[in-house]
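Work package 3, deliverable 3.1, input record:
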Amino acid sequence: MNPSPSIIQGDLQDQKIAGYQSSLGVTHTQTVTLRGVQIQSGFTFDQVGVSYQTLGTLSARRDNAILVCHALSGTAHAAGLHPDTGRPGWWDFHVGPGKAIDTNKFFVICSNVLGGCDGTTGPMSPRPETGKPYGMDFPPVTVRDMVTVQAKLIEHLGISRLFAVIGGSMGGMQALAWAVNFPELVRVCVPIATCASHNAMQIAFNEIGRRAIITDPNWNGGNYTPDCSPNHGLAVARMVGHVTYLSEYAMTRKFGRTLQPPVNAAAAEAALFTVESYLHHQGESFVSRFDPNSYLYLTKALDQFDLFGTEPPEEVLRRVKARFLVISFASDWLYPPAQSRELVRLLKRARVAATYINLETLYGHDSFLIQNPEFANVVSHYLGNEYRHANSKQAGAAV
Amino acid sequence: MHPGIYETVLDWIPDGARVLDLGTGDGAFLERVVRVKRAVAEGVERNPELVAGCIQRGLVVHQGNIAEGLDQYGDHSFDYVLLLGTFQELISPAEILREAFRVGGRVIIAYSNFAHYRVRLQILFRGRTPVTKSLPLPWYRTANLHFLSLLDFREFCRQMGVSSIRDACFNARGQVVVLPNLFAEEVVSLLEPAGPQRKIKS
């Protein structure tokens, strides 16, 4: 392990990086309106707007589509520079020409999840009947609902089967839900730093975040306005969340006990640790782009996700047709490797071909978001080999 | 390990077998098994860099130690379980062998013979822990936890209720046929449950 001192941590889209170049240049997102979407709660949306991005070219055989699923704070803008902000997409380090998910080879799709706030229908979208935001009247959303909407998007794009579904954290849960709920539609599943269901600690951290939002006086039962919204609560939620995505090593290395230079004489009295100032910045930056109600809905979806539910895991996984690459990070204490190992054990017992690697990246849960050559190497080789393998099998079947 | 061991194992594995390779390293041999024998194969390896190497070769691989790796699989998931060169490094070889026979039908084990005459001579005349071609590292650097001979291994198999249906012994000159416990440096054995009930003693 030889980490570079200038390693960039946290969500890429929250950073101002001087001179950052994306090999994709400026990329755009589009929106499509899907009609008649029924979700698990029984609620039916007459229409759902979905914000999405596609990169690369769909092959003539339409067999090279990879769906990239974003995590809690992610967006449809996976890679390339945002046309308005100029900031890179959240996975620009790993999606692009010649990168882990190679846009020269694959047709990459990334969409904002149902219940999100980056262009897909969510709590801040206007209700068709009233024109006012849904707020807390938005129906409860599950990870499976997110996947249902993605499946409709894929259909809309004229793709009958995905080559791969890949994602970290909440994105990994979506990948798992894809493999279980649409077994015929997924060749390869790559869940990263994720689990089949949250444990008590993961739920607890999310509840702290939710509590911070709903006890903010501006929350007002979810009926807030843009100029009077529970920004304070959301910022605190983000601060707590962000700490759980890092590692002690990463924080010590980045901040140690260094102090911020005081802005004036009064501030010098109560000097601020760099880590405090960093967290304030993370909170503020997040508030400017995330909807508090959306945070409540998505964290609830995470907590309630249970890949197996009341069914025996083996029966659920026996339906799976995909081959798996499961990745965890030794330093991830929020989604500890033991959860991934348990998932792999269940997959293997159900005779699913599953490769497992626990990378020694030192940067905690966020290890899949940062520049990480070991990670990139494993993902790119795995996808490349599986694609070749699938093609040769297809060629064999044709003979 | 002696290259003859790999050739022998390749010879013993039938076409299309389901194979689990414990301690698969960079996967070079397992890749051959897949290619030559069209085996449906998986490896278990604890070193993440070597696991990445296996992924690069397109192998299905599990990162973990051998005991943990075996726990992942259901009963009778494989036709052959391979333990090539790692056997004397296992903390509890008896437990691993039982587990190997739970997940697989046959087990192939390769190990170093500690009763090779050079080893005997070094202990007898030099009074030192032997360092030889097949035991190349000094006592403080070797990963070997157990020092066994061919006769020890046979006795171990008897006690475990398994029998060796094929053996091949090697030293630097090639295959050894005469007095293998004295002249073999490395041995590979194909094991099967012994007796009519075909049950491994626990």
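Chain B has one domain: 3-114+147-192.
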